[in-house]
Amino acid sequence: IYVDDIIFGATNENLCQEFSKLMKDEFEMSMMGELKFFLGLQIIQSEEGIKIHQMKYTKELLHKFKMEDAKPMKTPMHPSTTLGLDEESLDVDSMMYRGMVGSLLYLTASRPNIMFSICVYARFQVRPN
């Protein structure tokens, strides 16, 4: 079995060392030290706990989709928003739309509050007008 990435941790340093030794005895692996980034997630460890965010990824998305000047919203989607086919709108690049939806789905790893909105938008991937 080949595993590319694995993370582990404990509140007790001795437990970490013991687990690390068991894993190294069984598998070829290297220790990377304190975790700060993992698969696009930024990790902050403190006495209060572990915080996970994707600020760097979010900024990269804003740049990628040319939305650096977008204004923050209080909610992911206004409650009165209704989506449907707009025959009179300009055609939308469906590949870019799918890329946006996929990127935003990955963002839900740290922002579960946007999941419903993203799923609503995902329904329009075939013809995003």
Automatic annotation (TrEMBL):
It comes from the Eukaryota. Residues 1-78 form the Reverse transcriptase Ty1/copia-type domain. This is Reverse transcriptase Ty1/copia-type domain-containing protein. It comes from Cajanus cajan (Pigeon pea). The lineage of its organism: Eukaryota, Viridiplantae, Streptophyta, Embryophyta, Tracheophyta.
